[in-house]
Amino acid sequence: MNSHSVLNRTLLTIAGLVLLGGGLLVLTGGLDLYRRWGLAPPAGWPLTTPHDTLLPAHDRTRWTGEDWWWPTVIAALAILIALALWWLLAQLRHRHPGRLPVGNPPVDGVGLYDGALSDALAADTARLPGVNEARTRLIGHARQPHATFDVTLDPDARPRDVHHALESTVQRARQSTGWEHLPARATLRVASHRPHRAE
Question: Which candidate in 65, 76, 148, 152 could, as Cys together with 133 as Cys, close a disulfide (CB 3.0–4.6 Å)?
Answer without folding.
Answer: 152
